[in-house]
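Lecture notes, structural biology module. Today: joint structure prediction for complexes of two components.
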Amino acid sequence: MVTPKLDIDHIRGERAERDSDRLVIENERTTYRILSKSVREYHFIVPYDSYQDRVEVGQIFSIRDRDLTFLARILNIEHSSNYDGHWDTTMRGTQFYDDDQIFNRVIAEPLGCVSSDGAFRKARTLPTKFSPVERAEKEEFGFLKSAMGDIEVGYLRNGSILVEDIPVSLHSNAMDHHMGVFATTGMGKSNFMKVFAASCMRLAARGESKFGLLIVDPHGEYLKGKDLTRGLVHLKRYREGLACYSTDPKNASDPDVEELAIAESNIRPEDIALLYDWSPPQRDALDAISRILDSGSWLEEIQRPEGLARMVQDGFKDTTIMVLIRRIKNELERNKYIKKRSSLDNIIARLQKGDVVLVDIPRISDRSELFLLSVLSRHILEEYKKDPSGERKNCLITIEEAQRVLGGGNNISRFESIAREGRKFGVGLCAITQQPKLIDRQLLSQFNTLVVMGLGDRNDRQQLEESAKQDLSSMDIEIQTLEKGEAVVSTLKIPFPVPAKIHRFEDYLRRLNQEEKDEGLIKRGGFKPFLP
Amino acid sequence: MKIIHLADSHLGFSSYSRLDEHGQNRIEEMVYSGFEKAIEQIIRAHPDAVVHAGDVFHHVRPKIKPLFIFQRGLQRLVEAAIPVIIISGNHDAPKSFNQTSPFRLFEGLRDVHIAQRYSYERFEVGDHCFHCIPFCSEPQDYLTEFGEIKRSGRDVLVMHGMVESLKNQKMRSVGEHELNDSLLKSDFDYIALGHYHGQAQVSANAYYSGSVEYFNFGEARDVKGMLLVDLETGKASNVPVKPNYMIDHPPIDCSGMRSDEIAEIIMDMCHEDEISDRMVRINLKNVNRVAYRSIDQGKLNRLGGAAIYFKIRLDFCDEEDRIERPVDRRMLHVDFAGFLGERRSANLIPETIKDEVVSYGTEIMKKAVLARQKETTDAP
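The predicted structure, tokenised, for the full assembly:
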């Protein structure tokens, strides 16, 4: 028996030819037809072996129906046919199926519809049967441009194809409503944060920012980058939008990086309380400190015999106080940045001005980081509470590994209070975590902006889907299959969760550094005001 | 090595129109005598160096007298073999290229080092290296100039400007001649700062010496003098030059008081021995305008003759009705932007140039306000 030689190119050519027979080609664009099914679910079919135009989960298609253009996102793709029963597993010789009878059924969810005047709204009707379906292009996404905000983070992605004309940008105004960045390791969280910060720096330097961004970086990767990556200081074009504070002497030797200093008077007993598990008497003693000792100098006082005596006089056991003192001494010893001087006022001033404030604390222990974060966030909330309606800008506090402080338990109180009441005073949280499942569900439901970048764990996705303000449940497959640098951005001001490709920081940096200075007349002209 | 750190002499400063028996401005003369006292103190203490951290002169083009006073003082230090390090400040640095720095007159003197060229200069004096960053024309220049510094291991930094954290604490307005806190590195043995007129420690190793004189009533609570610094230990101690001569009385509420009661309060505060050779301000609030006018004005005018300067600041109780809102010169650009906004919304600015008018106009006003402030209000 002679085995026929397989000519792959020939077969592909034949298939392509068949495809072209079956597709309706209009203006050289692949067009399918809507078949069914309801207001909540659209179906259309594509050739089962199409080599020309493979469809993917997450892709967005547009369906034109007279004055409306419906947009739909692919949820799933199934094998389907016009045959009944087990026809495909029944042996009938070589030719047991007819090409025209089998196909892939594409199931898509409607995102909404765009009317002829460019306005987008939710779809309350369904497109007429056999309306043409085609991959949405930049014209169809045009309405998104106006819905986007001012903090650019990436480009719109349709499946794995970039739509570079439509940048995905978050809204400054939504930032006091908290934000969550969720991704497993290596999916590009740090890259995202750097891009986000760079966009904020750009706004700040142009005097257009609406909030100050605080980033506490325990990994030492945002300031100057790590290994081959670059850092925020490399964004020279908009450098004035960034204020840097560092505990690392090498980084702090730069003229524009301030040595981080927290004054002893900035520290309160509750900051220490956050760090250890305390017995009830110890906790009582901690609570009583601010009543018994001077709130500005308690740290010094309690370490002196007179301070100890005053605490004992108030009925606390000296052994209890000794434990407090020992732990306090440990903390002071561990946190060398506690000095007479304080950077806190500068940090607050820069945040209120709308700048990006980077606190670089490389090689610092987990406990010290928490401690610092606690002092900073308490101070910020207190300052913002003092002046809720002033001219100052809002503030967004970034918390890395947020599940440590937003996951319930004793540690939660400080950050929980920011999550719950911060909004009233213009203070928002940006929680970054790999494990959203560990974050308190109620808190998660307060997050208005979510950036999801690939979560393998089913429980993580479920937690997000259940708590998010926009419906993410239908995007489960897409979130699971996101690749590095890809994200789904859900924020209230953008009408549906948007698939995005986050900019690679180094590329974005290059682009921003080359941006023309928007100098305006004042700097271009030779006119100088006359000053007597 | 021990140094004396002083700053903000503002030679040539004159204020209030009180003249002495020779027809000279009393405040101006007081500033000269204060400077000479400071020189005497320095010679007595005989440090290894003197650092003047800016604003020797109050004006870019000082009159002959301040130049003479300074030259005489400098000469005495040179004769006493005390090396002098000076930087220019915002008051005595020319702001345009057609002007010449007054410090050019003092170039070439033995052991007198003056940094006045808007750029970093380094002087080795004794066993220390003095890194001087004088007044720079653009705020970002300070970072660049600082980047030029090469540490020797025994370093002193000298700068002039308002440190960011002090500005934030004092709630000072924008437009100050500002220095980032990031320049206050802990590896300097000492950082000598000028510009702020109160003595203040801003970090473990950075100090404002403050000025010797009081230049306005806002400084009434400041500590004045010079600092004697031991560079080995980093310890800085105050060297007072003059006793505290400024009294700014806390406001007295005069609501419902008759003219004789108000007069009595004023007289009580004006005993000659209490105000003699001092600058005194009495603050009265909620004063009835009619009651105040009926006090014998001639008598009021004769009050405070023994003082260097004497003022009664009045806050009349009907003030609020008469004036809607005080105009803050520093916020003029905000008011102006508001004004343009109104004109714009009323369509009084042609459509095609609307944006340009608003941005250009606001920016011009802002620049003018800031420049004006730099010239005049950030120091006395």
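Point to remember: Chain A is about 30% helix and 25% strand.
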